[in-house]
Amino acid sequence: MLDEPAPFSLRSQGDDTAVSLTPSAHLDSFTRDNLPPADQWPEFNEAWLTERYPDRLNCAAELLDGSIARFGGQGCALLDGEQSWTYDQLVDRVQRTANVLVGLGVVPGNRVLLRGPNNPWLAVTWLAVIRVGAVAVTTMPLLRAGELEKIVDIAQVQFALVDHRFVDEWAAVSNFPGVTVTYGSTHANDLDQLVIGAAGSHVPVDTAADDVCMLAFTSGTTGKPKATMHFHRDVLAIADSFCASIVQPTPADVFAGSPPFAFTFGLGALLVFPLRFGASSLLLESAAPPLLLKAIERHRVTCLFTAPTAYRAMLPSVGEVDLSSLRVCVSAGETLPEPTWRAWHAATGQALVDGIGATEMLHVFISATGSQIVPGSTGKGVPGYLADVVDDDFNPMPPGQPGRLVVKGPTGCRYLNDDRQRDYVRAGWNVTGDVYIKDENGYFFYQARADDIIVSSGYNIAAPEVESALMGHVAIQEVAVVGKPDEARGMIVKAFVVLTPNATASDGLVHELQGFVKAAISPYKYPREIEFVDELPKTATGKLQRFKLK
Length: 550
Fold this sequence. Notes:
By secondary structure, the chain is an alpha/beta fold. The protein has two domains: 9-438, Rossmann fold; 457-549, 2-Layer Sandwich (GMP Synthetase, Chain A, domain 3). Helix content is 30%, strand content 24%. The strands form seven sheets. Strands 4-3-12-11-13-14-15-16-17 form a nine-stranded mixed sheet, sandwiched between helices. Strands 18, 19, 20, 21 and 22 form a five-stranded antiparallel sheet that branches. A four-stranded parallel sheet has the order 6-5-7-8, sandwiched between helices. Helix 3 runs antiparallel to helix 4 (87-104). The longest helix has 18 residues, at 87-104.
C-alpha cells in the first residue's frame, strides 16, 4: 500500500541551478560537480527521508556496524557454497580492506571500479570502497575492453579492483591511467595478501547522507551508456521501502539469486537487503537455473531473486529438489508473464512477487506481496513511492486506459553530466518509458515499453501482451515479439520463438501457434510471422534486447 501522500520537494533554495545539499566529505568533488542542476531533479519524498536518515550517514558502516549493533556479530553474513563469514568476520575484512585502500591513495570522492563475479570478495570491496568515502563503480564481469573504456571515460575512474581471473580484458583498456589491484589470488601484491597485513580497525568516513556513494550504469540500450548517481541514503532507502514492506526479512533469512551486483536489482537483493536486516546472503559466481535450484535445496534459501526467464527455465526441474525452505520469490528485470506466474505457483505453491524497478530509481518501486498479489499485475506503489499513469501532458489517465508510467519517492534519477536527464525527469516525475494501465483498485498492469507498441493497420498492439499469450503454449520456452515494417499494414507482428527441447519447428507448428494466440487475445494481435531461433539476444543482466531483433 502507498504511504499517505507526503511532501515532495527538491530542497530548492529558490535557485534553479543549485540544490541545497549537506556539506560533502568528498575531497574529490567530481560527483558533486556533475550532479544535474536543480531544475532537472525529480521531486523527492523529503518527509520520508528526513524521518529516517540523519544528515551524516555512511551506508556501508550502517549495513555492517549498524547491523552488528542491532543483531549481533555472530550470525552468518555471507556464504559462497563452501565457506561462510559471520558479521564480525566480514566487518574485520572490510576494515582491513579499507585501510589498504587508504594506503593506496584512495580519498573520499575518488571513483573505484570493481570487476568480478558475485562472491564474498566483491562484497568486501564494495563495502570497503564506500566505507572510505569513495564512489563504487561496479561493472559486469563479462564486459569487453571497449565497453569498459566508455565507463572509465564517463566516470573518470582512478582506481580499479579486479578479480585476478578477469584481468586480461581489463588490461586491454586503453584509457585508464590509474591504479589496478587484483584480488582472489596468492600473488604478493594481490589485495588478499595486502589485507592480511593491514590494520584491523578503521573509522568510517563521515560522509553526508547526500554524498554520492555509487555510480550504476544503464544497460540494454544502444549508444552511449548513462551513469546514474546514488546517495548513501538511497542505498538504505531501497531496503527500508521495498525490502521491509514486501520481503519482510528477519535475521533467519537466507537470500540468493542470479542478478549480478552491477545490476542494481542484484546489489539490493544480494547485499544491501540481507545486511540491512541481519540476514545471510548466498553469493554464487554461477547461478544458472539448474545450479540455483540445487543451491536453494542445499543452503535452505528463503528469499529468491531472479528474472522471469529463470523461473520459467527452472519449472521442469522443481520436482527434483526440495524447495520447502522458500518463503519469498521475487521476479524483476523483465515483465513477468501471467502464464509463468501461474505455472510457478502450480509447481511450487509460491506466489511470485512481481516488481518493476529502474537503474535510475535504484530498485523496485511497484510491487505487491501475499494476499495483495493479483496475477498479471505488477502491484501497487511501494511505501514511500507515488506512481501514476498519465498522458503526454501529465494528466492522470482514467482507470483502464494506457498511458505513461511515472513515479517519484525517496530515490530518483540523477544522471552524471548527461543531457538525457531532461528526457527521464519531467514535471517533477521520473518517466520510466513504460506504458501501463492502472485499474480502479490502484493496481498497475504492464502493457509495453513505450517503443514496443506495434501500430498495425491502425491498431495499437503491445508486444508483451502477444508474448504472454504465446508463453501459454507448451512448446514455447522463450519468445520475443517486435514490429516488422510492412507496406500494406505499416507494421506486422513478428514473433521470435525458442522452443522447448521436446518441440520441433515446422509450418504446422507456426499455424498452431497463430491459432493459439487468436483464441487467447484479440485475433488482430496474432503474429503474422513466426521465426524459430536457438536463443534470444539479451544483456548481461538477462534483459531482452528487442532492438537487435528489430
